[in-house]
Amino acid sequence: MSDPNAKINEPKIKEELKRNGERAVSAGLFGVPSFVIDGEIFWGADATGMVIAYLRDPLRFSRGEFGRVASLPIGVERLRKS
Predict the structure, then answer these.
(1) What is the domain-level CATH number for residue 18?
(2) CA pair distance 43, 40, nearest whole angstrom
(3) Which of 1-10, 11-20, 52-61 shows the lowest per-residue confidence on average (mean pLDDT)?
């Protein structure tokens, strides 16, 4: 296995990391890890269980209390670079 510290300093790898970061920001992502499934964004290690629940039942988050909360107004929204 090659040295990871040397590998991450390769110009090709740095450019790929930069492009991936720019894509993430333009998609509205801001946490690690981030998952985008069916246009829904799940972020943060604590959301992994929600990702699994969504994959098992995509409608779960549109019913009941989740559905009610989804209809509330947004207080603050992150600006995206254009």
Answers:
(1) 3.40.30.10
(2) 10
(3) 1-10
